[in-house]
Amino acid sequence: MYRIGELSALYDIKADTLRFYEKHGLLSPSSRSDSGYRLYNQDDSERLKFILRAKAVGFSLNDIADLLSIEVDKSNRACADVKALVDTKLEQVEAKLAELQHFATSLKSLSNTCCGGPDSAEHCSILEALESSDKHIIAKQEHHHFSHLGHKD
Amino acid sequence: MYRIGELSALYDIKADTLRFYEKHGLLSPSSRSDSGYRLYNQDDSERLKFILRAKAVGFSLNDIADLLSIEVDKSNRACADVKALVDTKLEQVEAKLAELQHFATSLKSLSNTCCGGPDSAEHCSILEALESSDKHIIAKQEHHHFSHLGHKD
DNA sequence: ATAAACCTTGGAGTTTAATCTAAGGTCAAG
DNA sequence: CTTGACCTTAGATTAAACTCCAAGGTTTAT
Question: Locate the HTH merR-type domain: which residues (chains A, B) (predicted)?
């Protein structure tokens, strides 16, 4: 069992943030001490980890509440409803994944192209890298027989 | 050349948002009409696309300004500085990618497990799926020896 | 030439997600 | 048995990212 200060320290957030999440229905401590202190158990901690992960990849607290509601009213929802909700979120996640992979490719290409030395960065630009990675994809489609050289997804 | 209303319509955002981005140094129109109307060109439009993509994957406008600054002061920065900045952002992107892949796996497993029918969703939970996908990974790693059980990160 | 639909600015208001403040209760250590 | 670090509540304040409003100028179609 963690008190609010212990759990918040564990995830490097403020105790206030945990109270805020509780007020907004995202995470309630599973019990209270005799004196009213919040007591969080391991499941509560897992749930918090989920919330923080989802937040880190760009979901709003409302989005996260939607996802968590799948658990909360488990037996009150038809499986079809749950599936629809999950599939919608899955589409969002996969769209984000595609964007991020695009970003990662561009950043890598930028990092590799860049001399890394003390010269001016005349040709270093994210936008150029994004453009050239677009072009690279097109080029790859037209020259697929070179695919064994630096194959990327 | 696009006027503010045209560009905002193109990306389904408010004209106010474009003025806000301008005020905060993220995107300025490359020119103005005689009467002072903002005129955005194709490069401006690309830059906006980048901003919206980065936002969608969870970067703050400050983060995005950092990334764009790589372009803005191109020849004023040493290549080494650019490389350091890019590599920092790349680490962030790859951390987000890992989180998202974790999510996508869990959501897929949830979607597959779920009957999708009119029955109650007794066993449908994101948290369970996240847990079980964790366990799955561990199970795979320890598949040949059952000597240690309950190993967790 | 005048309405409708655009645009300008400055400034105020909203939403989301915290974060802080005040006034007090709890608990372990000296 | 008091000091200091913790906790409680309600409510105020902050920061980021918009979003709206008022008062007026511009463009285009009838």
Answer: 1-70
User: Which of B83, B102, B124 is the closest to A74 by Cβ?
Assistant: B124
Topology of the domain comprising B1-58:
Multidrug-efflux Transporter Regulator; Chain: A; Domain 2 (1.10.1660)
Chain A residues whose beta carbon lies within 8 Å of the beta carbon of residue B67: 126
Task: Mention the CATH class of domain A1-59.
Answer: mainly alpha
Residue B96 to residue A132: CA distance in whole angstroms: 23
Each residue's pLDDT tens digit, B24-82: 999 999 999 999 999 999 999 999 999 999 999 899 999 999 888 876 555 556 667 77
How many CA atoms are closer than 13 Å to the CA of A125, on its beta-carbon side? 16
What gap in Å lies between CA B14 and CA B5, rounded to an integer? Answer: 8
Q: In angstroms, how far is C28 C1' from A4 CA? A: 18
Cβ contact B79–A114 (<8 Å): yes
Residue type, A129: A
Tell if A37 CB is < 7 Å from nucleic strand C: yes
